Amino acid sequence: RPNKNGTRAGVTGPSGLLYGIIGREQAPDEATLAAMADAAYAGGCDLIQLREKNMSTGELLRRAQIVREIAARRGKLFIVNDRLDIAQAAGADGVHLGAEDLPPEVARRMWPGGLIGVTVRDIAQAQAAAAAGADYVGAGPVFPTTSKKLDADPLGVSGLQAICQAVDIPVIAIGGLTADRITGLQQTGCQGVAVISALFQAPVVQEPDRAAQFGTAVAQAARRLK
Ligand code: TZP
Ligand code: MG
């Protein structure tokens, strides 16, 4: 939903955005997914992306509906990875697309008001995503990560900065990010950070008493981004 500036709610803003990514490796069953998503929002996530590979459409839709409901209750954003159809069916705010998914210009035609994010590994891909109508790019991996098998070398802080300088849309850094490493991104111009393991590594979020503090260090580091 474009606002007056032509940007969309949520990904632009004065403070750094904390973007949590969760899937069945972190939350195997629906009750755990609900508890972890709720804890993540409580702990400072502005947005959660549901990222599931090789899951049946029915199961994915149910999991998307669970996170959608929690996001709505907390007034936070929710995005589905890969699947525009599931994102729309669940009433999500948007979809995140990679090289093997719908091209962003096609997704934009299908979903004019959706929040559309695109994975990029270099400047050329970032510029192409911006030209195709993406609302933000996810740039990475910035650091080595064990959460995804990747053939690309890490961008490093300077590679991330180069991408930030090359596009006008928000850049969300991803890959191997911890609170300390996020603090090291302050000069890059990235708008936010996307995080899997530093947020969702068991057992922290599975202890209800710790939910309130959950993610606080990561969230505080993210807030200090531009
Ligand atoms: N894309 C690039 S790195 C990555 C994805 C999905 C994984 C990030 O996970 P972590 O655990 O925060 O390094
Ligand atoms: Mg994808």
UniProtKB/TrEMBL annotation:
Highest taxon of the lineage: Bacteria
Entry binding sites for 2-[(2R,5Z)-2-carboxy-4-methylthiazol-5(2H)-ylidene]ethyl phosphate: 145-147, 176, 196-197
Occurrences of domain Thiamine phosphate synthase/TenI (ranges): 18-199
Residues reported to bind 4-amino-2-methyl-5-(diphosphooxymethyl)pyrimidine: 49-53, 81, 119, 148
Binding of Mg(2+), residues: 82, 101
Protein family membership: Belongs to the thiamine-phosphate synthase family.
Functional summary from the UniProt entry: Condenses 4-methyl-5-(beta-hydroxyethyl)thiazole monophosphate (THZ-P) and 2-methyl-4-amino-5-hydroxymethyl pyrimidine pyrophosphate (HMP-PP) to form thiamine monophosphate (TMP).
Name under which the protein is recorded: Thiamine-phosphate synthase
Species assigned in the record: Heliomicrobium gestii (Heliobacterium gestii)
First and last residues shown, out of full length: 244 to 469 of 475
